[in-house]
Design brief:
The chain is of the alpha+beta class. It has one helix at about 20-30; strands at about 5-10, 35-40. It has a domain at about 5-40.
Amino acid sequence: MKIPVLLLGSREDEMCRKDLAQEYGEVAALIPNAAIRIFEQGGHPAIRISGNSQ
């Protein structure tokens, strides 16, 4: 890939592996211009975690 890639994740995401940072590090090592940002808090981005269902 020639474009920058950003790997995002959260340590609180129950759908991700506990070694997410290690896994992302291994993936980023294979991709030029890759960056990693792991948040301390937050759920799975694909799931709406707000109590408001509207």
